[in-house]
Design goal:
4-stranded antiparallel β-sheet; 2 helices; alpha+beta; Jelly Rolls; 17% helix; 8 strands
């Protein structure tokens, strides 16, 4: 009977692996310090070769807690020529919010994310120059 009592001891090293997994998830969360993105409404890459390149998307948001994230990759070594603008239109209220990346003024702000708080119909207009941009619109999960 005594040897059976010591058999659960090898289970302890198995459970010590679980705390080892916890820092990995903490590290993943730290790459997006403000919140975690959930189910996607839009996830697309756009290429802007000249200031005349314009894209527009329309989508329905069913959550009161959502966000927009974009990741800009400049396509020129001359960062002053690289820029991106994203305008978010709330189709119900008519309100507009603008978010920008400027290779000239803030070249290090390539990844930006913004919390949004109202469900409804939305449209985004995007324009830029000499950039490739990954745009993600998604629900926000509790962090």
């Amino acid at each position: 009977g005594c040897t059976q009592g010591t058999n659960p001891a090898p289970v302890a090293p198995v459970s010590t692996q679980a705390p080892g997994a916890a820092p990995a998830s903490t590290t993943a969360a730290s790459s997006q310090p403000s919140f975690v993105m959930g189910d996607h409404y839009l996830e697309t890459q756009y290429k802007f070769n000249s200031p005349t390149d314009v894209y527009s998307e329309q989508f329905m948001v069913d959550a009161s807690s959502w966000a927009i994230k974009f990741d800009v990759s400049p396509k020129s070594d001359t960062l002053e020529k690289c820029w991106f603008q994203l305008d978010v239109y709330d189709m119900n209220s008519g309100k507009v919010a603008s978010y920008t990346y400027s290779g000239k003024d803030a070249p290090d702000k390539k990844v930006q994310q913004y919390a949004m708080y109202k469900p409804g119909s939305y449209k985004i207009d995007m324009k830029g120059n000499l950039v490739t941009v990954d745009v993600l619109v998604a629900k926000r999960n509790p962090s």
